[in-house]
């Protein structure tokens, strides 16, 4: 559904290494791990600077990519993979954490601002456009006066962890819906009516 030849590049944002694995900022990696399980494959190192997995989700061809650079430099690997697989920016799907949504809420959109998200800023710069698809996973706002930059690098709370598997599953469903149904139909299916 996404793209003229039906191939979507799904990029999950996060930071490499075990020290970051459970951070809020790494939700993109966690969602892609769930999608990789659904495809039934393993990520392999790619020359674009990302770990990639090619497969099908709901009958649609996808390349899952986890940049090996730090979050703030995600654009290089994203643009490199898009060039290698000949995917236009409008068929690039970026899964990322979103401070402006309550924990676990998922929203789909095309283009827009980066809202201070350095991973998105890097991708917009490297792709030369903001017109790529986003799957926004709500992590909520930091409590009190905590700096958002510190908040995103903290692990989910024990309360959040109880709901995390369900929320990741929902987000993975939304990615599948986006690549197989298209943006508008997926929004109608996954956005609450409120």
From TrEMBL:
Domain of life assignment: Bacteria
Record carries keyword Aminoacyl-tRNA synthetase: no
GO molecular function, one term: tRNA binding
Site (Stabilizes the basic form of H active site to accept a proton): 97
UniProt keyword list: Cytoplasm, Hydrolase, RNA-binding, tRNA-binding
EC number: 3.1.1.29
A GO CC annotation given for this chain: cytoplasm
Binding site for tRNA: 20, 70, 72, 118
Catalytic activity, reaction form: an N-acyl-L-alpha-aminoacyl-tRNA + H2O = an N-acyl-L-amino acid + a tRNA + H(+)
Keyword flag tRNA-binding: yes
Coiled coil: none
Xref: InterPro entries: Pept_tRNA_hydro, Pept_tRNA_hydro_CS, Pept_tRNA_hydro_sf
Subcellular location(s) of the protein: Cytoplasm
Residues flagged as site, Discriminates between blocked and unblocked aminoacyl-tRNA: 15
SUPFAM superfamilies named in the record: Peptidyl-tRNA hydrolase-like
One Pfam family matching this protein: Pept_tRNA_hydro
Record-annotated active site: 25
Known role: Catalyzes the release of premature peptidyl moieties from peptidyl-tRNA molecules trapped in stalled 50S ribosomal subunits, and thus maintains levels of free tRNAs and 50S ribosomes.
Recorded family membership: Belongs to the PTH family.
Subunit note: Monomer.
Protein name (Swiss-Prot/TrEMBL): Peptidyl-tRNA hydrolase
Organism, as annotated: Allokutzneria albata
Underlying gene: pth
